[in-house]
Structures are given as C-alpha cells and as structure tokens.
Amino acid sequence: MWFRARSLVAATATALVVSACTASSVDETTTTQAPPPAPTTTSTTQAPTTTESTTTTTEAPLMTVAVSGEMPAAVAAAASAFMSVVLDPRNDTANIDPAMLEHLATAGDGMTDRYTGVASIQELSTGGSVGVVTLDSGDLLLLADEGSGWTVVGADLSSTDAPPWYGPSPRRVLVLGSDARPGATAAVSRMDSMHIVTAVPELHGGAILGYPRDSWVSTAYGDMRINALTASGRGPDALFALFTEDWELPLDGYILTAFAGFERLIGSTIGRLTIDLPRAVPSRLYWPGFRAGEQRLTPTRTLELARTRKGVPGGDFTRSWNQGLIMLATLTMLQQGSIEDVPVLIGELVKYTDTNLTPTDLIQLGAAAFALDVGEIDNVVLPGKLGRATGGASVVFLDPEAEGIVADVVDDGLLTPGEE
C-alpha cells in the first residue's frame, strides 16, 4: 500500500571558539648588561566564527496508478489519470471535476498503484460516447467523451470506504411525453405528459412531480395551457425555458418521447412491464381497461395505460399519477440489472427520445438511478381545479399551494412530509 509522505531532513554545522596567547621575560647578569629588549606587545585575536544551518527539503516521488484490462487504450489512459489524481493530488487534474476530487479526498489512503478492469462502452447516435469501467477491486468509474476525449465523470470507490459521486446532487430532469400522432413531429406537438423527476443518490430518494397537461399558465407567448407551449413550432426548448428562465427552476435538461418512441424504448429495455395498479382503469373506445393488482403489460399496453384519462376518476390528474407509477415500475425492473448496463440503456434512450442532456449528464443520471430506493421516491401530481379560460376552453387552475410544492421538491429533490 502506498501512503502519501513528505519528509524534511535537517542538517546543521557547528563551530567552536579558538583562542591563543604568548608571553616574554628579561634575563640580567652582574658584569654585562645587555641592551634592554624592545618592548613586546602581545595580542590575542579571535577570528569571527560563522555557524550556518541548511534545511534541505526532499519531496516524495510522484505516485501514479496504472489501469489496464479489457478496454480501449484511451479509456484505460483516462482511468489511470483519474485514479492517479485520487491517489496523489500532485498529478495533473486535467478536466476532472474539482467537486468530485474534493468528494473523494480521503479515497487515496485505501488505494493501490495497479488495477485491472473491464469497460462497457456505448457510442451514442446523438453524438459522443459513454462508458463504465469495473475494476478488479469492485470499484466503478463513469466516463464520457463529448468530442474532446474520455474523461472520468463519476466514481464509486467503495473499496476505499469513500461515498460514490455521480455528479452534483440533487438531479432534476423534465420528462415530457408528446401526443404526436403518426406522421407528426413530436417536438412541436402538444405534450400529454409533463413531470419533473428528481434524484438524490446519497439519500436514495427522489420525487416525480406531475403537471396536469391543461394547467393554465402565463408565458412569453401569452396565457395558454402548458401543454400547448411546444406547439406552433416552438418545441421543447420553449417549455424548458418557461421552467428554467421564467420560473427559475434549476433543471439539468429535458427528455422527450412520443407514442412510437415510448413503445420501442420500453420494448428494447425491459420488454413486458410488471406493474401493480392500486385501482382498475376502465376501457376506452380503442382498447380494453386494466384490472387492479399486479400484472405484466406489453409495450403497447403500457402506452395505453399511460394515455388513458377518460372515464378515470380524477381524469388527467389520475392519468398523470399513473404515468409516474409507470416510471417507478420501469425503474424497479431496470434495477434488476447493474450499473454496467447503463451505457447500453443510454444508447437505447437517445434512439427514441429528444434530449438536451449531455453524455456526461446521461451517464451520471443513469448511475444515480441505481442508487435510489423506489420506495423512497414520492409520486405526486400538482393540485388544481377544473375551470374555463377566456373563450370557454376547459383548463386546470393550479391551487395556490402548487407553487410551494414545486419549490419544496426542486430545492433539495425531496418532498417534505405533509406537502402533498
């Protein structure tokens, strides 16, 4: 095991006092007197003495870590550079997030100088790549390449007793479901589903906060139903700006999907969804209803459940809650796998969705999902009342307490008990 060390070696020189003295005498006879001797002067001179103290500092050699194994050379190099910095902060920190290094400041004491590992790498259809490296110590590294090379963007160094770091916490994402019909463009159609999803990995909790799609809001384009903000060619960026700029909610980004993309995403990641419905859902004109209790749904049936609102007590409020229930059921099934699956899952996600999240965001969020306890995630829909807007349109007026619920959830990613 390597340990950080710095040693100071002190050396001192010593000097002693040196002195000398001389004397003279006079010798007389009775017959001859010698000339008197010349006066003699005796002096003692002490040379100045200088004592010097020299301190020499010897710095320990720079310590590094080598990571090798079943992975591309560039990934191994990025992993080695990161682990070297954790072991010895004197190494070049390059593009490593300072917050992550601070979080893992004590991890170096439990590290070795050599690891082997296996990497799971996925190139994304939207650009960039993500990866997870599993080390022989059981530790995990999250990596992303956004075009300038691989960088470690998260780590679980559990072998050193350091807590995992999956990016800043809490995480907050706007999840959108478009009602685009076949042939329509999902991004500029109305939204059927709007949720702020939060995650607090260190507390294993989070929240799913649903907005009724007909909520009446003030926007830069005038007063309208919130789900209409993406229409008229404005797209999800306009809706995201309402949340982040007008309402000043610190969201990381958005993920948007439509009917076909939702089905394909469910089919490619989990197949049939196991879900426990607390109450039955009535049939619609085009598909049968759903019984109460646990059942397994095909991707098509999962979409039908997510869309059903007519005839359901509570209408769109209950539909929004059921959509949150589908998210929780999906997370439960995904957690039967492991973080090593995240790169592939992200690859499927970006195929069937639109998002403004970066590869770094995506790999961090994917790993954070495995740190959550589904039972600690609140599923809530903002309260409101049905009414009529100017012109007679049926809308939802959010209750006054809705704003406080949003602020509470967004603040720390959790719903304070009693705020529902």
Describe it for me?
The chain has helices at residues 73-87, 98-103, 236-246, 259-269, 299-307, 316-334, 342-351, 359-369, 401-412, and strands at 6-12, 53-59, 66-70, 114-123, 129-135, 140-145, 150-156, 171-178, 191-200, 205-210, 216-219, 222-225, 253-257, 273-277, 293-297, 354-355, 377-381, 384-388, 394-398. The chain is of the alpha+beta class. It folds into two domains: 62-160; 171-412, LCP protein (Aminopeptidase). Mean pLDDT is 88; it is low at 1-48. It contains nine helices and 19 strands. A hairpin with a 2-residue loop joins β11 and β12.
Quick structural summary:
The chain has 420 residues and is of the alpha+beta class.
- Whole-angstrom Rg: 37 Å
Q: Which structural class should the secondary elements be placed in?
A: alpha+beta
What is the ordering of alpha helices and beta strands? EEEHHEEEEEEEEEHEHEEHHHEHEEEH
What fold name stands as the CATH topology of the largest domain?
Aminopeptidase
Domain count: 2
| First-residue to last-residue Cα separation | 51 Å
Largest sheet geometry: 6 strands, mixed
